């Protein structure tokens, strides 16, 4: 019992409560994540500062049929897009975000953004980035449960600033 007590292998009652609360609301949160993500992906698809969008629920996605089959058309809360202007524009975009947080983790209740070429993969040169499957224009978004209009407004102003 001493190792269990010392290493924390047994959850405290409060931690158990928090985990149960999270599990009980997971379905509701995932509905909102997916709904918001699809709207953001559709918005990005039509934005002039965006080269491409990768989101399985979009009609033109090569993964649409698989998304329908496995997930009932609800892709996830994660999407990626290519920003015009590559590395420099991606860094400007991330720096210009107000509400969306600049974090590399995913799946939070709040919206998060990452530009791998200037954060997690910044030590790699162009060839190494390509080899790792990371383009210099890649921006990854983990869309949260905030109101979708607020998410899109923040993305819009950051895209505008990234192209200036």
TrEMBL record:
GO MF entry, a single one: pyridoxal phosphate binding
Keyword check for Ligase: no
What's a GO biological-process term for it? Answer: transsulfuration
One GO cellular component this record assigns the protein to is: cytoplasm
Q: Tell me the superkingdom of the source.
A: Bacteria
* InterPro entries found in the cross-reference section: Cys/Met-Metab_PyrdxlP-dep_enz, OAc-hSer/O-AcSer_sulfhydrylase, PyrdxlP-dep_Trfase, PyrdxlP-dep_Trfase_small
Q: Does the keyword Transferase apply?
A: yes
Q: Which family does it belong to?
A: Belongs to the trans-sulfuration enzymes family.
Instruction: Write down what this protein is called.
Output: Cys/Met metabolism PLP-dependent enzyme
**Organism expressing this protein natively:** Marinobacter persicus
């Amino acid at each position: 019992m001493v190792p269990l007590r010392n290493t924390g292998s047994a959850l405290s009652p409060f931690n158990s409560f928090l985990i149960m609360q999270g599990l009980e609301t997971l379905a509701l949160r995932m509905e909102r994540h997916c709904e918001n993500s699809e709207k953001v992906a559709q918005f990005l698809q039509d934005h002039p500062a965006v080269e491409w969008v990768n989101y399985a629920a979009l009609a033109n996605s090569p993964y649409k049929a698989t998304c329908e089959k496995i997930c009932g058309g609800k892709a996830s809360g994660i999407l990626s897009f290519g920003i015009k202007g590559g590395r420099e524009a991606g860094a400007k975009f991330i720096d210009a975000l107000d509400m969306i947080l600049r974090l590399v983790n995913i799946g939070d209740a709040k919206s998060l953004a990452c530009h791998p070429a200037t954060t997690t993969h910044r030590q790699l040169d162009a060839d190494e980035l390509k080899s790792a499957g990371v383009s210099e224009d890649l921006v990854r978004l983990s869309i949260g449960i905030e109101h979708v209009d607020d998410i899109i407004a923040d993305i819009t102003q950051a895209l505008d600033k990234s192209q200036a």
